Amino acid sequence: MLIGTVCTLLSAAGLGISFLVARRRRYALALRTAAIALLPVGLAMTGVVRFVVNMTFNPVAWAGFGVLACAVLLFLSGRLAEGRGRGAGAASAPAEEAGAPRAARASRSTPSLPKAKGKSGSGGVDDFSDIEAILKKHGI
Fold it and tell me: Rounded to whole angstroms, how far apart are CA atoms 6 and 94?
């Protein structure tokens, strides 16, 4: 009974806020607010709220969550240990990179930057030719 009353009050407050938002002519936001405001009543009517409240105050349920968390941690640590055991052989470098000089390996790992255009022999006139074409196209 108390759960239904609280959920009804929450929904009524949310619908009131939605009405105020609609008066400001923000109809899309008002519809989203109304949809969210109706969630507590809907959850109370389906019994989800009662289930959550009963589960929240149940120590057996919390022990079950603890067991589930322990199982997840054990599973993840097993995957981590398996990955480390397999990773030792996979981490060794291939034969071609092991024999390559350090500078050659470093140059392959860094991306090359595009080379900057230098001034042409005509004093850099064609460096600005594309800009001039754009300006002439726009009548400037």
Answer: 66
Quote the tokens at residue 45: 């009517």
Give the C-alpha distances (Å, rounded to integers) separating 30 from 27, 38, 39, 106. Answer: 5, 12, 15, 58
DSSP per-residue string spanning 57-102: T-HHHHHHHHHHHHHHHHHHHHHHHHHHHHHHHHTSPPHHHHHS-H
What pLDDT digit, counting tens, does each position of 47-95 carry?
888 888 888 888 888 898 999 999 999 999 988 888 787 655 555 555 5
Query: pTM above the 0.70 mark?
Result: no
Position 99 confidence tier, pLDDT thresholds 50, 70, 90: low
Helix (H, G, I), strand (E, B) or coil at 105: helix
8-state DSSP, 115: P
The length of the chain in residues reads 140
